[in-house]
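Every protein is a chain of amino acids, and every chain bends into a shape of its own. Below is the pair of lines this work produces for a single protein:
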Amino acid sequence: MDYEKIIHAFVDPFIDNPESLMVREMPNDSEKDILILVVANQTDTAKLIGRKGIVADALREVISIAGKLESKRVHLKFESFDEESNED
């Protein structure tokens, strides 16, 4: 199953910069566990997590259900790009 495509379908419409969103399946030793890293700029990452993590929890639930179809546990991890500051 293409988990990256599923995440993009849910996330792209409501973030500001969908072209900067990076979704990658990370290598894992376990055949039953899948770790997916979702990386965006700070503003979009905040939108993806939502207040009190509500949006992130909803995305995790959807992906978890998709994983259960293949008897796998899918974990999402959210990170933001480090933006360079011009402080002297």
Q: What stands out?
A: The longest strand covers residues 33-40.
